Hints:
Elements: H1 18-28, H2 55-63, H3 65-68
Amino acid sequence: xxxxxxxxxxxxxxxxxxxxxxxxxxxxxxxxxxxxxxxxxxxxxxxxxxxxxxxxxxxxxxxxxxxxx
Length: 69
């Protein structure tokens, strides 16, 4: 059987402020790999199908001035 080492996570500071959040992010950043940037290609409208938006979400977006007006 393999002996897996488990590191206890740092205690979460649920009442912390922005400084606490930034510290958490700084500790986590070295653990994340940055993917290579690929070039985004346009998608033809004919390829977009099967997207369904619930009526409640559509009404919500329609009522938001940034999206509907």
